[in-house]
Amino acid sequence: MRSDEATFLAIVKKYQQPLYGYIRRVVVRHEDSEDILQETFAKVFRKLWQVRSEDALGGWIYRIATNEINRFFKRKRIILVSEELPEAAIAPEEVEERKAAEILIPKAIGKLTQLEREVFCLKYYEDMDYEQISHITGANKNTLMVTWHNAKKIIKEEILK
Predict the structure, then answer these.
(1) Which of 63, 80, 112, 152 has its CB surrounded by the most CB atoms within 10 Å?
(2) CA-based end-to-end distance of the chain
């Protein structure tokens, strides 16, 4: 692929929001997610010429983001706990219907290991198949299937507490 500014801007426009969502769900903190997103796009810009086809572009970008997430966790050497979302900020009549999707699931994701977070977010939110997730994470499909099953089980247990 060409590595010109117009191509890069089109890529940023297409991938910025979904990629930020993926990173944010794994890393949790907004500030860290923005930093990782910026690093991801910097690497995409520098290495865009290496992509052989547009079909491989999405997986390649998510792989770079996953590598940046891994670098972040190694650099910080921390275990993140999901940030509490203040229920007071939500109108009382909306709490029950929004609770599972907006409060309980993100909190439950905080209980997952890093790989479980990555697999859950890529499969549940990004609707990727095991082949795509394998390419992004470097894990084999059988490991991903077990990881997906475990992540769903943990999240279900956390939600039902």
Answers:
(1) 112
(2) 49
Using DSSP, state whether 109 is helix, strand or coil.
helix
Euclidean distance between CA atoms 36 and 93, whole angstroms: 36
Boundaries of every domain in the chain:
1-80, 85-161
Mean pLDDT for the stretch of residues 42-62: 88
In this structure, whether the domain defined by 1-80 belongs to CATH 3.30.1950.10 is answered with no
Helix ranges restricted to H, 28-129: 30-47, 54-76, 92-98, 105-109, 114-120
Q: Using pLDDT thresholds of 50, 70 and 90, give the confidence band for residue 3.
A: low
User: Domain 85-161 belongs to what topology?
Assistant: Arc Repressor Mutant, subunit A (1.10.10)
Which DSSP category does 37 fall into? Answer: H
Residues in the chain: 161
Please report, rounded to a whole number, the percentage of residues in the chain having pLDDT higher than 70: 81
User: DSSP state, 27?
Assistant: H
| pLDDT for the residue numbered 2 | 53
| Residues 25, 124, 90: CA angle, nearest 5 degrees | 55
